[in-house]
UniProtKB/TrEMBL annotation:
One of its GO terms (molecular function) is acyltransferase activity, transferring groups other than amino-acyl groups. InterPro entries: Acyl_CoA_acyltransferase, GNAT_dom, MSMEG_0567_GNAT. This is Histone acetyltransferase. It comes from the Bacteria. Residues 18-179 form the N-acetyltransferase domain. The keyword Transferase applies. Gene3D superfamilies: 3.40.630.30. Keywords: Transferase.
Length: 187
């Protein structure tokens, strides 16, 4: 088959940006991605994954960067304060083509917890799907208990805030290691 007859691989950029969503396109992209992951892919929710927490939550996004500018939303998470000093993160999602390539999930978790810490969190919790517990443990979270959420096995987990300094940044940028791209292309 000639090269131009082969299906194009999805565009995977060399640079990503993780930031607090402010513009309308970032917020729309955040909700669109959550719907794609939690309704269409995982079928945790049938019609919508949005709930009352979204009224007060801080929304974070991971975006691709093109020529240095944030371009399209490929990652999402939200955080909210559920009681004084106690914050929660939820709806962590990375678009399927961008998983395990740019550390987007890890950087969304990092900015989420650092942002809450900056805003006064003394405790940060999340209900983590069981297949992701190792990811969180490697990021200095510990399991408090096993629970069932939406009929699925989860762990209630707590972040060690000593590893999440309250740096006050609203954005971090990451350059994807070129070695990973070369390995993916060679595979
Ligand atoms: C879970 C999820 C957000 C992870 O995002 P991601 O961008 O693929 O993860 P990252 O690339 O940041 O992973 C960071 C590291 O953890 C590893 N990792 C990623 N997911 C992992 C998992 N489920 N278990 C163990 N390790 C994992 C990566 O390989 C990477 O390792 P490295 O540091 O050695 O390179 C993503 O897989 C996803 O959206 N899944 C579907 C929705 C979902 O499950 N949401 C979470 C609900 S709790």
């Amino acid at each position: 088959m000639a090269m131009w007859d082969q299906p194009a691989a999805p565009f995977i950029p060399g640079q990503y940006c993780v930031r607090i969503a402010q513009a309308a396109w970032e917020r729309d992209g955040h909700f669109r991605l959550r719907h794609e992951v939690f309704c269409d892919e995982q079928q945790v929710f049938s019609r919508t994954d949005r709930d009352a927490i979204d009224d007060d939550a801080i929304l974070l996004v991971a975006t691709t960067c093109v020529l240095g500018s944030p371009h399209s939303v490929v990652g999402a998470v939200r955080i909210h304060e559920d009681e004084p000093g106690s914050w929660r993160g939820s709806r962590l999602a990375v678009q399927a083509d961008h998983r395990r390539v740019g550390r987007l999930g890890a950087e969304l978790i990092r900015l989420a917890v650092c942002t809450a810490h900056q805003r006064g969190a003394t405790r940060f919790l999340a209900q983590v799907q069981v297949q992701n517990v190792t990811l969180f443990e490697r990021m200095n979270w510990r399991s408090l208990e096993q629970i069932t959420v939406h009929g699925l096995p989860h762990h209630l987990m707590q972040a060690d805030l000593a590893h999440y300094p309250p740096h006050g940044l609203v954005e971090t940028r990451m350059v994807r290691p070129l070695a990973a791209r070369a390995m993916a292309q060679a595979a």
